[in-house]
Design brief:
heterodimer, A: 114 residues, mainly beta, 7-stranded mixed β-sheet, 0% helix, B: mainly beta, 6-stranded mixed β-sheet, globular
Chain lengths: 114, 109
């Protein structure tokens, strides 16, 4: 069973607020990922990290930013939330090494910007 | 651009039947292949992975891989209404996993 935690599970907040979505894993995984997914739609990779102080943008352009100061922690920040940011945000992690390792997902954060 | 293609469905099968889900991928260098199940409003959960050509069985699930044809499939035997979900195919090489858009499966009681 993967131990990857996302908080909050749900967030409803007004336009213009700064938001940080938390993601932590206790497995010592080096690789971590953020995905954005609208209801009934496909997963979009928005950020990933292969280790401390390493972050990359994913396939989908996003106004969010990420940081990786500690191995177990990969927070995502929106400086000024807008209604277009309303979506589900999923965090995942996998072990470094061969490409044969699957990704394990957290339960997600459902974000609604009013 | 590495691509993973899946029929979006919905694929409807009667309870007890075999559900067959298919996936093709564009990158011949892909090494690992995963099937995830995602219930509505939930996060994806890993149900199968396969690395080598041929079949791999786990309970009611069988994954099939044909690297020459760049094709991977998932068979679900004795389908149950609880199997109704979206099934995501994911392919890995030396880059982040590439996910297909998913096939929605509906098992009719």
């Amino acid at each position: 069973e993967a131990d990857i935690y996302q908080t909050p599970r749900y967030l409803v907040i007004g336009t213009g607020k700064k938001i940080t979505l938390e993601c932590s894993q206790t497995m010592g995984h080096d690789k971590m990922y953020w995905y954005q997914q609208d209801p009934g739609m496909e997963l979009h990779l928005i950020h990933y990290s292969y280790g401390v102080n390493s972050t990359e943008k994913g396939d989908l352009s996003s106004e969010s930013t990420v940081s990786r100061i500690r191995t177990e922690h990969f927070p995502l920040t929106l400086e000024s939330a807008r209604p277009s940011h309303t979506s589900q945000y999923l965090c995942a992690s996998t072990q470094q090494g061969s490409s044969n390792q699957p990704q394990h997902f957290g339960d997600g954060t459902r974000l609604s910007i009013l | 651009q590495k691509e993973v293609e899946q029929n979006s469905g919905p694929l409807s099968v009667p309870e007890g039947a075999i559900a067959s889900l298919n996936c093709t991928y564009s990158d011949r260098g892909s090494q690992s292949f995963f099937w995830y199940r995602q219930y509505s409003g939930k996060s994806p959960e890993l149900i199968m992975f396969i690395y080598s050509n041929g079949d791999k069985e786990d309970g009611r699930f069988t994954a099939q891989l044909n690297k020459a044809s760049q094709y991977v499939s998932l068979l679900i035997r004795d389908s149950q209404p609880s199997d109704s979900a979206t099934y995501l195919c994911a392919v890995s090489g030396n880059t982040p996993l590439v996910f297909g858009k998913g096939t929605r499966l509906s098992v009719i009681a």
